[in-house]
Amino acid sequence: MLNHLKRIINGDVPTAATEDLPPALSLVVIVYDMQVQAERTLLSLSPQYQEGVSESDYEVIVVENESANNLSRDFVERLPANFSYHLRAERESTPVHAVNHGVGISRGRYVCVMIDGARLVTPGVVKNILRGHRLHERSVVTVPGYHIGNQLQQTAVEQGYGVEQDQALIDSIAWPMEGYRLFEIACFSGSCVPGFFLPNSESNCISIPRDLWATLGGLDTRFDLRGGGLVNLDLYKRACEFPGVEHVMLLGEGTFHQFHGGVTTGGEAGQIRDALIEKMKAQYIQIRGYPYESPRGNPVYLGECPVQVMRFIEYSSARALASQEGNASAPAATRLSAQG
């Protein structure tokens, strides 16, 4: 590889040959029945939105499980050159097979899984994922998760929150012109409610070296419940706890869940949703032999911290200090409203 790079620098290799080099990073984005939200997500992953990177640095593999609400042909044809689109007729209600398929056809040295295509990302995600992988040969790089709105969407939906309110909030910050203003209209997602400095349950943007992905065996296909059950949490735990791994968290970046009637954040009756979650927990125990617990460890925090993220740092610090002191009066997530 070194000799090949020297040949490129010296001009001994035709330009066309350099274009065949694989990108450093492959992002695999799973889409199902979320046309409007997925279009915004893919815009947030485009080279025009992402800062400090070019098309050649990364690829985006869009895998859509067929529904009555697919991405339009016109939109797909206008995707950037470093994007590819793959429509599948999935027979099961889990995204596990779509993820494994997407990783299987990707080319990057690192693979980043976004199991939910309804998540907007901030402009430094790709640049800082690549930075994170340069820190250690086995870095697992994760991005914290948020919900658009001032409370968890599974709670907000019971008070009338829906797609229209979601759209209004996004419009209110002139997105996508100022990507970091997403923090102004968001709260931590349920899996990240403990904050930055206490264990989280998952990341909806997790990047793993390809050889580690192979060692882990990809996503476990036994997670066959609707939405994949706890499969994304399982990947997060197995990757972060793998021996020799350096967990790198991108403190100043985020993924922001758009309301779309998702499995655990949609408009189903609370009792139905709670029953499904209990079923997911039971399946995890059946597969792994013990209840799910967030992985422990001391992440390396990386990246710039825009002013909009400071209130989340303050909240996270208060939670961590209260936990260390055994104080039961740690700030509640509901206090971290979109109004600050």
UniProtKB/TrEMBL annotation:
Matches recorded under InterPro entries: Glyco_trans_2-like, Nucleotide-diphossugar_trans
Alphabetized SUPFAM superfamilies for the sequence: Nucleotide-diphospho-sugar transferases
Molecular function terms from GO: transferase activity
Domain annotation Glycosyltransferase 2-like: ranges: 26-151
Keywords: Transferase
CDD domains: Glyco_tranf_GTA_type (cd00761)
One Pfam family linked to the record: Glycos_transf_2
Coiled coil: none
Record's protein name: Glycosyltransferase family 2 protein
Organism: Pseudohalioglobus sediminis
